[in-house]
Design goal:
153 residues; mainly alpha; 69% helix; elongated
Length: 153
């Protein structure tokens, strides 16, 4: 992607949001199946969208919390390739978690658990800060110049 003048492209923004959201839920589902699926008889969408499953009172709840936080770390890695700009990471991470909040409200009602809010705000912070860090490292890399071009100058 060219980093010059930004052109307003709503289709690109929407496609990036959809792509990031799909990758996040795919990763969260895989982590849930690995960490929580081995502990419960049947893994359902309840574990992704219901606030009552995120509880520190049970080992299954801790596995669900770990899944959400590890998915945030993976989401930061996805931002490196999907978003590519450090200054956009907070916007896209916040959008992802706001969409997750709306889906959770539709699925299980308003999240009344303090744990749900702490886990999701922590995930937002992890995804935004780690995504910005990774993107800044990529943006600050030196551009390699070929030795043939250097010889002709």
């Amino acid at each position: 992607m060219f980093y010059g003048a930004m052109v307003w492209d709503p289709w690109l923004i929407v496609s990036q949001i959809v792509c990031l959201q799909c990758l996040y839920y795919l990763t969260l589902g895989m982590l849930m199946s690995l960490l929580v699926g081995t502990r419960v008889p049947r893994l359902t969408l309840l574990y992704l969208f219901d606030f009552a499953t995120l509880t520190p009172r049970t080992p299954t709840g801790w596995c669900a919390i770990a899944s959400f936080l590890l998915a945030a770390v993976a989401g930061a890695g996805f931002m490196l390739y999907v978003i590519e700009r450090a200054k956009k990471c907070l916007d896209f991470a916040a959008t992802l978690y706001i969409i997750h909040l709306f889906i959770s409200i539709v699925y299980g009602g308003w999240p009344a658990s303090v744990t749900w809010w702490v886990v999701n705000i922590t995930g937002l912070v992890i995804m935004a800060l780690l995504g910005e860090y990774l993107c800044i490292r990529r943006e600050l890399k030196e551009i390699p110049i070929s030795s043939r071009l250097r010889a002709s100058v």
